[in-house]
Amino acid sequence: MDTRRLHSFVKIVDAGSITRAADILHVAQPALSQQVSALEAQFKQQLLIRSKRGVVPTEAGRALYRHAQLILHQVEQAHAAVGTGGRTPAGRVSVGLAPCSTGAALALPLLRAVRERYPDIVLHLNENSGGVLSEAIMTGRMDMAFIYGSGPMRGVEFEPMLTEELFLVTAPDAAPHDPPAGDAQAPEVALSELAGAELLLPSPSHTIRQVMDHALRTASVEPRVIGEAESTSTLVAAVVEGMGATVLPRSLARATREARDVTVRRITGPSIEVTLSLCFSHHQPLSEPALAVHDVFHELIGAFVQTDRQGDRT
């Protein structure tokens, strides 16, 4: 099978247009169309539905797209391994990290550890929503991801790694309804106190938002969501400026308190927890370099949990 045709087909599906894919690949459009026709003749299946608005894959085309992603990734890994003589794991490994999660705190340590131990591995980190990352894993465009949730999800294997409580983060000496200054330093805040509070939260597609919305509805508490952002730094910056409060998992809340002048309190009545899992394809085994990164990630999570527990005792 000509891998160049597979590469062109993947680009066409990603671009949604043969014309746009031709521009990206710097190939004449008729030549690209011929490559698709050759693939359709080879598989004896129509792979693309063409219209004035572009192209979309047929069911057969979607199946080929998934397998093409895996094949091209394996070819890339083979080139990298041969280039190093097979001495050490080599190649590109992609890891997704859910925004507003512990993944943000682990990104730099992971990059550093992989660079030190496996200099022939190129680590690609992608911070995006869990839905986008899990789809990328299903289609073979990503090796693994650290996301909220514990499954199940078709085609994705979940490895629960960490469970964290949610904390309210406010500006110094500020609480949901400006209570006495002494109360603002309390280590806990009841969920009922968030009634009418001005909150800055991730979008409704984010797990933290979904968990918070469910808890608030169950408790018949109605806060005021005054803004949405997927970036932890943006949410915290808005809090520091006194625009409102936000909600973060414990590790991020504590790290924020150490770096910025904010008040951090555990939400109670009830407490709210989220689970983070390392996930990867259920059907496709991890490559040698991806397995190496997987093991490094495990070590970092173990060290992170131990440090967090020590922080609880101090």
Q: Could you characterize the architecture of this molecule?
A:
46% of the residues lie in helices and 24% in strands. With 314 residues, it is α/β, with parallel strands linked by helices. Helix 8 (207-218) links the parallel strand 8 and strand 9.
User: What's the helix-strand series?
Assistant: HHHEEHEHEHEEHEEHEHEHEEH
Structural class label: alpha/beta
Shape: globular
Our estimate of the beta-strand percent is: 15-25%
Distance between the termini: 61 Å
Classify the helix fraction into a percent range: 40-55%
Secondary structure: number of strands: 12
Tally of helical segments: 11
Rg from Cα: 23 Å
The stretches of 5 or more residues where confidence is low (pLDDT under 50) are: 177-185
Calculate the mean pLDDT score and round it: 85
Biggest sheet character? 10 strands, mixed
List the helices and strands and how they pair.
Layout: H1 3-15, H2 18-25, H3 29-43, E1 48-51, E2 54-57, H4 59-83, E3 91-97, H5 103-117, E4 121-127, H6 130-138, E5 144-148, E6 156-170, H7 181-184, E7 188-190, E8 198-201, H8 207-218, E9 224-228, H9 232-240, E10 245-249, H10 250-259, E11 263-268, E12 273-281, H11 288-313
Parallel strand pairs: 3-4, 3-5, 7-11, 8-9, 8-10
Antiparallel strand pairs: 1-2, 5-12, 6-10, 6-11, 6-12
Helix pairs in contact: 1-2, 1-3, 1-4, 5-11
